[in-house]
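Re-running 4 TMS phage holin, superfamily IV to confirm reproducibility after the cluster update. Everything else is unchanged from the original entry.
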Amino acid sequence: MNFLLKVVIYMTVLHGIHLLLDGLDYSTILAPVGVVLFLATVGHFADRWVLPLLGNPLSTLAGGSFMVAVIWGSQFLFPGSHVRFPVALLAGVVLGGVEYRMHRDILGRKERV
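Result of re-run:
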């Protein structure tokens, strides 16, 4: 469930930023889909392994930084794509905020079990 929720939220945020701001232009629909699937997969496993070790604030900071790097770096993997760094940074901050909230739910659920 965590993976599917991440896919939906990440795709919604990236698409919303693409519609609202100039600077997140991918050459094909496969590019953002690939980025979202990659981030959701890494995030799913990081929630299992990194979150319990580092706690919510450090995990969120590390995850948000990783997301910025992947979103910005994706322009080099997909020819014809253009991603401005400030836009990638904004996407990472928004996704980091979403992750912080999701981490609180995950950690709260583990304490109750």
